[in-house]
Amino acid sequence: MLICGGSKAVQCKMLGSTLVGTTLDWFSNLLGGSITLLKVFFRLFVAHFVANKMKPPGIVDLFEVKQSKEEYVK
Hints:
about 0% strand
């Protein structure tokens, strides 16, 4: 659902009805009254979902690659 127009208060009230899946679970488990400012909510939202995002493998991850006894190099 896309929320267009309306005041910030209306948009905030409608936010919960636009969430699905793990986002809805996270939102539903917030303690009542724990969010006092919209900027606090934004910070928590971003921190939660950025931390859970899979990052692509990097150069450092190559050090974790090990050759098993069954593998051989031609």
